[in-house]
């Protein structure tokens, strides 16, 4: 999937998006040079990993090498010693608690107005284990379990048990009445949590912070986010986002390819020169001029590329005439993909594409209009990746390098991720024995590619648009019926015949518009299939 292509099919083109991004720029964006990733842990000796030649050879050497199948006792990646993102703040409603699953952990996210902070609790009431996410925020700003009314403050302490006599022992002060609290923080407009409720990690934010993306907090860049629950696992999600070679094929028709002479095929795929280096437990880097790509384990994949040309920005200084000075800076666009392990066969993607040009577009175009095209990008390879994951499971993830033939440099980042996963991270997400290892059954295609429950209900912009458009559909139907009723009740006359004809025409237009809108709502907010055979 390509974020760049997601922008191409979004409404920005009809609004005069100031820069046309061709496939050469897109390729560079995904295959650019990497800088070392700072790490608080000891970094193993840097080893250059260069992808094998783009020319296919039957004498292909194994790019993983034997070291992939061994686990190094020193510097092994600890899945539970890192911050995990939950959701963008813009898609969280402060008026209610939100149920989320991350790393197999059921958590509830809620806004504590007494401390003005987002809190992350274990989604389980200590009384009878009912989900707190089904509860409410009471008038005192406490999280209330709606099963029996127990109330908890932002520290997880039980503050009220309705069934306890007021003159009896203060049972609500018992440690057993407390909810487990996860350390949490907000960074780059996203709520993160530390997946361990042990009190020793209460102040972990002072020692270790989530990966920081400067462009997401830079006011000269746009910062429109999206999120979606994905019906395939974390491993397949990340390697797909690291793979630029699939874009002209899996997303054909959703991107604008430059017209090339002597194309090898209709889609215009080309050899890609890619290399990767500096492996260590906290990720890896690669190199290709002139951009930057980074994998911050376990969740963040970052790509940045200068696009050519310049854009004017206000530098805050005043000229001698009293007007603000403007400086020219190079146009830049950043792709940030945040991939969240949810459970086997399920993941969550948060994306944002900050850019320092055309900033005005995001100020007037609502997010849901961008999400229309971006969801279509996700849908176009969703089914094949869901099936691919099951084939990988059949052969075993540890046998990936033997089952998959990856002879070209275009797979360098994918190979690097699988190498990192096997060498440093145990070969798969550590679920702490919470799951049997089997993937969930494959649902019908329409359910698999459903947008409503995987995106719309979790996106404040799309949810508002969905409700508004449904209201508009009903209004059009009511107007259509009302006009026909007026026509039927009007007496015959020469003038009334003209008026009747006009009202009947308007009624038919309203009815046709309501039917079109119904189709649009279903296609945009529920289900839009993608048939590769007829693209």
From TrEMBL:
Signal sequence coordinates: none
Compartmental location: Membrane; Plastid, Chloroplast
Keywords: 2Fe-2S, Chloroplast, Iron, Iron-sulfur, Membrane, Metal-binding, Oxidoreductase, Plastid, Transit peptide, Transmembrane, Transmembrane helix
Entry annotated with the keyword Oxidoreductase: yes
GO molecular function: 2 iron, 2 sulfur cluster binding; chlorophyllide a oxygenase activity; metal ion binding
Annotated ranges, domain Rieske: 83-193
Pfam families (alphabetical): PaO, Rieske
InterPro entries registered for this protein in UniProt: Cholesterol_7-desaturase, PaO, Rieske_2Fe-2S, Rieske_2Fe-2S_sf
PANTHER family: CHOLESTEROL 7-DESATURASE NVD (PTHR21266:SF32), IRON-SULFUR DOMAIN CONTAINING PROTEIN (PTHR21266)
Annotated protein name in UniProt: Rieske domain-containing protein
UniProt source species: Cannabis sativa
